[in-house]
Write a structure and sequence with these properties.
The strands form two sheets. A four-stranded mixed sheet has the order 1-4-3-2, with helices on one face. A four-stranded mixed sheet has the order 5-8-7-6, with helices on one face. It contains four helices and eight strands. By secondary structure, the protein is an alpha/beta fold. The longest helix has 11 residues, at 22-32. It is globular.
Length: 143
């Protein structure tokens, strides 16, 4: 596509987080992090237990799809299982990194690192119930 052509892509709407236990992930992201449950519905019209579950930061359009490793009768389980606890880090902007750290720690969220000032801002890294890293980032005051 040349620079003069218009893109057909209008927005990022979903990212997938591969999880071993969708219900535990739903509870972690909604109860501990305070995310909204955006969707929770059957994936198919058959007798499958597969569920399409998404969560997201309140007021934001991007949703995190909690992707079960055994969707579609487990056909991709061998490929997906190594991703459980090893998904790419999710990063979240916060207004006050120290206050976010204290609040989430009180709710039982485990942190890998305490709030640390860097040249690019203040960050704290937590992990979810399966070990996926979550970055909470506060930009420097000058921005």
């Amino acid at each position: 596509m040349s620079k003069t052509q218009a893109s057909h892509i209008s927005a990022l709407t979903h990212v997938s987080l591969v999880v071993a236990d969708q219900q535990a992930a739903l509870e972690f992201y909604t109860e501990k992090l305070g995310f909204e449950k955006k969707m929770d519905m059957p994936m198919m019209d058959d007798d499958s237990d597969d569920r399409w579950i998404t969560v997201g930061v309140p007021g934001q359009d991007v949703e995190i799809a909690l992707q079960a490793i055994d969707w579609f009768d487990g056909r991709d389980e061998e490929k997906l299982r190594p991703l459980v606890g090893n998904n790419a880090m999710l990063a979240f902007a916060v207004d006050d990194c120290q206050a976010t750290y204290e609040d989430l720690k009180e709710r039982g969220v485990e942190f890998v690192s305490e709030p640390t000032e860097q040249d690019y801002g203040t960050e704290a890294i937590a992990s979810d119930m399966e070990g996926n890293e979550l970055l909470f980032f506060q930009p420097p005051e000058s921005q």
